[in-house]
Amino acid sequence: MPTYWLMENKEKNMLLKSKKEKMVKEVEKMINDSKSVVFVNFHGLKAVEETALRRDLRDKEVSYKVARKTLLKRALAGKAQGELPKLDGEVAMVYGADEIAPAREVYNFQKTHKGFLNILGGVFEGKFMGAPAMMEIATIPSREVLLSKIAFLLKSPMQRLAIAVNEVAKKKS
């Protein structure tokens, strides 16, 4: 083998190594800046559907990034407690500033596009979570929905008391 070929090949490997290091640092920054991360398998997702997914996620202030599993595992080393869930197939990360929004938005997209997107697990509150735990998190209603339910629950007894007082007042008159 000619020495110029070895030198050329070695330079390419060095470039790849530095590019990989840069990619790992980018993934680490994304993980550190987000409150939760969901790992999804997107096998079979067509470009049109992926564009729709990215648009829906962007509207909800959630990001989507395809990542190489080896680099993702390297970036996740020591970032959370527990064991990293098994990452099968083609893996992407969905992450955001909201704790529940990434999981909820993937879950909502999954309902309308069956079989294309599967939740593999994630990072939530500094811990690695498996797929079942992330699915539970995904089904938690939004903050606004929870607040409206609380308001309804608080309003209901007061409304019943007002009706009862009104009925008593009608009987006394």
CATH level 1 name of the largest domain: Alpha Beta
Q: What structural class do the secondary elements suggest?
A: alpha+beta
What is the rounded distance between the termini? 109 Å
Major sheet: order of its strands? Answer: 2-3-1-4-5
Number of DSSP E strands: 5
If helices are DSSP runs of H or I spanning 4 or more residues, what is the number of helices? 6
CA radius of gyration is: 24 Å
Largest sheet: 5 strands, antiparallel
Percent in helix: 55-70%
- Our estimate of the beta-strand percent is 15-25%
Regions with little confidence, pLDDT below 50 for 5+ residues: 1-7
Q: Determine the CATH superfamily of the largest domain.
A: Ribosomal protein L10, N-terminal RNA-binding domain
Order of helices and strands: HEHEHEHEEHH
Number of domains: 2
How would you describe the shape?
Answer: elongated
Classify the fold: give the CATH topology of the largest domain. Alpha-Beta Plaits
Which features characterize this protein?
Alpha-Beta Plaits, 5-stranded antiparallel beta sheet, 2 domains, 173 residues, 6 helices
Fold and architecture overview:
- With 173 residues, the protein is of the alpha+beta class.
- The chain has 2 domains: 3-140, 2-Layer Sandwich (Alpha-Beta Plaits), CATH 3.30.70; 144-173.
- The protein has helices at residues 3-33, 47-59, 69-76, 101-112, 131-138, 143-172, and strands spanning 36-41, 62-66, 91-96, 118-124, 127-130.
- The chain has a 5-stranded antiparallel sheet, with helices on both faces.
- Strand 4 (118-124) and strand 5 form a beta hairpin.
- Helix 1 crosses helix 3 (69-76) and helix 4 (101-112) packs across helix 5 (131-138).
- It is elongated.
- The termini are far apart.
